[in-house]
Structures are given as C-alpha cells and as structure tokens.
Amino acid sequence: MDKILIGKGKTENYILLNKINRHGLISGATGTGKTVTLKVLTEGLSDAGVPTILADVKGDLANISKPGAINDKLKSRLDELKIPDFEFKNYPVNMWDIYGEKGIPLRVTVSEMGPLMLANILELNDTQTGVLNIIFKVADSEGLLLIDLKDLKQVINFVGDHKDEISKTYGNVASQSLSAISRKLLFIEDSGGDLFFGEPAIDIGDLIRTDASGKGVVNILNATKLISNPLLYSMLLLYLLSEIYENFPEVGDLDRPKLVFFFDEAHLLFNNTPKVLQEKIIQVVRLVRSKGVGVFFITQNPLDVPESISSQLSNRIVHQLRAYSPKELKAINAVADTFRQDESMDIKEEIINLRTGEALVSFADESGAPTVADKALILPPHSSFETLTDEEYRALVNSSPLYAKYKDAIDRESAYEVLLERIEKEKLEAEKEKLEAERQKELEAQRKELERAKKSSRSQKTYIDKGIDSMLGTITRTIGREIARGLLGSIKKRR
Length: 495
Prior knowledge:
495 residues, alpha/beta, Rossmann fold, 2 domains, 16 helices, elongated
C-alpha cells in the first residue's frame, strides 16, 4: 500500500505515504471531527507498517486498540460513502504516561536532555547558560552521572562549594547564576520533572516498532494531566523530536515514513512556551523531514501554528471553522489562502458551512505540489468509538511487552549518592581531625600538668634537702665538738 484513503468528495482523496514527511495540519472547531480524522490517518499508517506517536489530550484515543462495531450513525456514513464492506479491527498500542499513572512510565535522564536544551526550557540567559554548561563539564570531569533532578541539584551545590577553584579552570561561576538555575529547577520539579527525569530512560527504538503482523505500533502519550503543564508537554515532545533527528540517518524521501508525530493542541507548543523553545521546535520540524519523519499539527485555530511552519505543511485537512468573531474570520481567510482552488468552490463559505465529519482536503501529489481543494466526507475509523473501561485500560497498559521494561524506576548510584557519600566521608574526616586535635590538646594539657607537677616536686625536694643538710650539718658539728671535748678530756686526765 502506497497511499491511504482519507475521504471521498468529487474524487477519492488519498494521502501519499511518500509525501507524509512533508508534514500536515488537521484543523477545525470543537466537535467537527478532528479526532476521527486523526484515527483514520493513524490506522492507515499502522496498516502500512508505519509507527506513530500521538498525544492524547482528551483521553479518547486508547480505544484504537479495540475493534469498532456497527451502529445507525456509522451505517449512515458508510452508505453515504458507498462502502458496502467495512472491516472493523483493532491496532497495536503502547500507552505512555510521564506520571506513570495511566501508561508506561516515560523518562529521560538529565544527561540525555543536555545543558543546551535544558537551558532553553529554563529560559536561562547567556551567563546562566554558560554556568549550566560548566556544571555539566564538572560532572563529567568528576565522573558524576546526571540522571535525575536531585543529581543536578547536588552537583550545583558542589560547584557552589568549590566555585573559586572551579572558576580558575572553567571561567567565572557566579553565585547568583547558581541560585537562579536552582530556583528554575524547582519549577520544573513541581511540574512533574521529578518523575520525568530518571531511569530506565526511554529508548527511541521502542517508539518505532511493528507488531508480529507488520502493523505499525501506535504510541499514545496520555496527556490528560500533562496538558496542564505546557512547558513539560513541549519539553517532552521537543526531546523526542530532537532525539529522533540526532539518531536517525539522512534518508530524504522514502516510500513510506519511518515515524509520524501528531501534536494535538498545537497552540500549547507555541503560545505558552519560552520563545527559544518555540524556535527550537520550529528548527527541528524543518530538519526532521530529511530523516523520514512526518509531523502533523492538530489545532482548533490554524493561526496557532507559526507561519514559518505553516508554510511547510503540504497536507491539509480542515474541518468546519467558526466565524463568530473577527479573529475567527481572520483565521478562515488565512486558511482559505493556503488552499489551491478552482472557480467552482468558494473556499471561505465551504469552511464555514462544513458538516461534522466533512473537511476540505488537499494533499501533496507525486511532484510535491498541493492538489486542488476538495470537500470530502471523512471515512470512519475501523476501531471503536467506545471509551475503554478501567479494567480494559489497565489490561492494555499491562499487556504491553515494554511495560515490564519501564514500569519500575531505577535509582542507581549517581551524582547525588556519590557526592553525599563524599560529603559524609569529609564530615567523618573532619570529625576525626577534630577529635585528634582535641586529643592532642588534652595530651598537651596533661603533659604540661605533669611538667608542673615535676617542677613542684623538685622544688619541694630541694627545700627539704636543704633542711636536712642544715640539720645534719648541725648534728655533725655538735658530734664533732663532743668528740673533740672527749678527746681533750682524756688527754688532760692522763696528764
């Protein structure tokens, strides 16, 4: 299969597989059929052996894993499309969730994110970006693994404690910059970054799988909670795109793409993210085409997609747009100008009056040029419209061959543990040195006391000795006189 049937209008509307890397747009107001179109395109890609990545903002895409069933509404659609035989089937799905609550945990390491992307996400200025680069260099030179946020914070503390020494080697490390980086990391941590950064980290190869039958695996990122953190949402999608761009070889235009991204709620990628991050997203989208990767933006307002990207979108599916305000009318005029049209169709009027399930479509032809706009009735999906029960959802997540690989977080020895151990060792050494110093001080005091005691003893002995000598001298002299007198007496008597 080299093309996917999307809908029927004046003609059958096919999107060519070898032109999907020219990127695309699915647009329309709420309730006009964007989700159905997304599922039809995803199913067609899966049947062609092309894996996909979808951000599920509303939580209504997991049912692609379950075969559909006929109902009156669906039968009416099939009759209108003149499709007598329609096969209901399911598709291989991996559910992912940064928070690990409704899908396989999806993690990356701080090292894999890298200082440049992290600086863009944190909106660091040039000075702070330079300091963050130094932090990563110090971690490398010290053999410190940066896996999660606590690793990075611990290395920041280490750099702060040794900033004078580090500044001599790598350049000035200002305390203000370290404090600013730490404060901004807290914001990421509070947004769920403490769960996003860690191990086991996602292997990009696990996102480009096919099942045993050759169908492309549909990777659905549960974004019902993530969508409330636009920065983290953008960071994740940019990381995945960047990793694919860096790891995929240049291939140009393939017969079919290697992978297709669908970015739902596209305005979150551009309206609520730092400008430098927006620019990075735009840059990667431009370049990833040559890697055999297609990107589709899904949005209520086509003007949410910057002109620098919109101009590169060769495949367009536009459902009904409302014209209740000047802003909405401006969007309709802008969209109308992007279509190639003939004189038989008033594009603006058609966009306003489209029924649910209808869309104006234009796809890149074999030469790469856009086809003439056609009003088409979009095909129904082969998978179910029913929401999965909690039990079905759990079974879907747990049955994935990747669940066992990623379900349990691994907190191996990294910068945090190494530096804590080093700090404890330094504390013990310091305590040992302190105790030794106190012991030496005590010994010195004891020595001095002994010296004083000896001196006192010698002084006391000298005093006594003098007394004894004086006494002995007196006694000796007395005895001497007595002897002398005795001798003299004896002599006198003999006379």
